[in-house]
Amino acid sequence: MTPPMRALAPVLTAALLAGCATTTSPTGRTQYVGAIPPAQLDQMGEQAFAEAKSRNTVSTDAARNAYVRCVVDAITRELPAGWQARWDTALFVNDEPNAFALPGGKVGVHTGIFKVARNQDQLAAVIAHEIGHVVSRHHDERITRQLGTQTVLGVASMIAGAAYGEGAARTTSQLGGLTAQAAFLLPKSREQESEADVVGQQLMARAGFDPRQAVNLWQNMIEASPGRPPEWLSTHPDPQSRLRELGARAEGLLPVWQQARGAGRAPRCG
């Protein structure tokens, strides 16, 4: 760290945390959130969802839409109070195996997901994972972090420019952005992915979907995506570590799943 950066470290830390609230995630992790109000975050999710529907082809396949709707409804019934309002869904005609969920109660699924999610339990693993991001406030956390990082880099560039000239300011901004992405933003994204695995697997088990099928889903995903970037530049955990963790957690969730089935939560979505 350069002398100006060392001197500025307390100021940068304060800038990063200014305006944030501290909360606890569903797995007990400390989070910094609150850079924007919850209502605005929901509005952003709604706008992004509307834009996705306007820019992409939405499937009119009634059977597949009902299938997705059934899985989403079963999972969202198990959400904590305040999250259970009806979630909107859209099935996009897109061969990429993907799905997403957004603040404001929105779920998007690509038709390509059916190549890897080969039964209702595997589809539930995908959807529950994505909804897990929302209820764990990961979008809020990421926006708060990114806004804080932008503030830090802006101030650092200004100080470097004042001390060493315009060239130093540009270099600080460029290198700082790369450092933040590799050492701060992406590792936290992996942390969020692992947390969404935990929350999603719990949700699917409580909804009556077999939590062991999350392992099968990710095995299918690995087979469908043989090439991947190095773990330190990936937003997802190492695949083999992920499989081991999902498998171990599934065994502990079997009583939850069996209890759900015994209570009549036995989805028949397709």
From TrEMBL:
Gene3D superfamilies (UniProt xref): Metalloproteases ('zincins'), catalytic domain
GO BP terms in the entry: proteolysis involved in protein catabolic process
Gene Ontology cellular-component annotations: membrane
Signal peptide: 1-23
Cofactor: Zn(2+)
GO-annotated molecular function: metal ion binding; metalloendopeptidase activity
UniProtKB keywords: Hydrolase, Metal-binding, Metalloprotease, Protease, Signal, Zinc
Peptidase M48 domain span: 63-249
Coiled coil regions in record: none
Claim: Nucleotide-binding is one of the keywords in the record: no
Pfam families: Peptidase_M48 (PF01435)
Cofactor note: Binds 1 zinc ion per subunit.
Family assignment from sequence similarity: Belongs to the peptidase M48 family.
Name the record gives this protein: Peptidase
